[in-house]
Amino acid sequence: MLLNSLKKLYFNRADYKKESYISFIFLHQGYLNPKIRGECRKAIRVGTTKSTNFIMENLGFHKTKLYSLILAGVAFISLLLPWISVSAGGFGGASKNGFGGWGLLVLLGIGAVAAACFMGNKALTFDDMGRKLVLGGFGAIAGGAAIYLIRIFTMGGGKYGGIVKVSPGLGLFLGLVAGAIGLLLLLGIIKVPKSIDDKVK
After folding, report:
1. DSSP of 80-106
2. pLDDT band for position 187 (50/70/90)?
3. How far is the CA of 30 from the CAs of 8, 13, 14, 157, 201, in angstroms?
4. Which whole-number Å values give the CA distances from 44 to 41, 48, 50, 138, in the listed order?
5. pLDDT confidence of residue 30
6. CB atoms < 10 A from the CB of 75, how many?
7. Average pLDDT of the chain?
8. What residues are paired with 85 via a beta bridge?
9. Which residue has the higher pLDDT, 38 or 101?
């Protein structure tokens, strides 16, 4: 729509045959000149990087705490999604979120991670006590999701003669992954990709 509007604006001008900046843009049947296209992409990348850095600086969190909060947020979102799905063949089915059973342990873990991130000076990395608390929190997130998953699998392929099928939901796997990544990051086993880490101050 914007491209068509600019074309109309250009061709309705009395002096449209004259060389102008717009004529460079609409070379080759209206497509952007490769050189200009490259400059636009570069400008967008620079602007995005500056915006990201501005946001990170104003949040004021140390990058380790920021990553932990993001993963805790992902784990909380996972609780809202289906953790278990039940299908009864032609009789329909149902699903349940993670707010119940071992999912409550995940919720406690999320609270522990959030508390650790806001303890003390948020611009500094975790102190010894905060590190233990956040490790325990991610352990609870991963552990609660893992136990929940095991309990689903121990139900077998189905109940009541195989008519009722029970299977894990997307939220359960998302919570398990969030907890596991949090543990591995805090233990230094895995690291945030450099391309992302360099943008966070």
Report:
1. HSEEEEEE-GGG-EEEEESSSTTHHHH
2. very high
3. 11, 17, 19, 59, 41
4. 5, 6, 10, 36
5. 43
6. 31
7. 78
8. 95, 167
9. 101
Rounded Cα–Cα distance for residues 91 and 170 (Å): 22
Which bin fits 31, alpha (ψ -120 to 50), beta or left (φ > 0)?
Answer: beta
CA atoms within 13 A on the CB side of 178: 30
- Determine how β-strand 165-168 pairs with β-strand 93-97: unpaired
Q: Phi/psi class of residue 30: alpha, beta or left (left: φ > 0; alpha: ψ in -120 to 50)?
A: left
Reference 172, options 68, 34, 80, 71; nearest CA is: 80
pLDDT tens track for 152-172 = 988 755 555 567 788 999 999
Average pLDDT for 122-150: 95
- Do residues 187 and 118 lie in contact, with contact meaning Cβ atoms separated by under 8 Å? no
Sequence letter at residue 69? L
DSSP 115-174: HHHHSS-TTS---HHHHHHHHHHHHHHHHHHHHHHHHHHTT-S-BTTTTBEEEE-HHHHH
Q: Say how many residues make up the chain.
A: 201
CB 186 within 8 A of CB 130: no
Q: What is the pTM of this model?
A: 0.69
The amino acid that residue 3 corresponds to is L
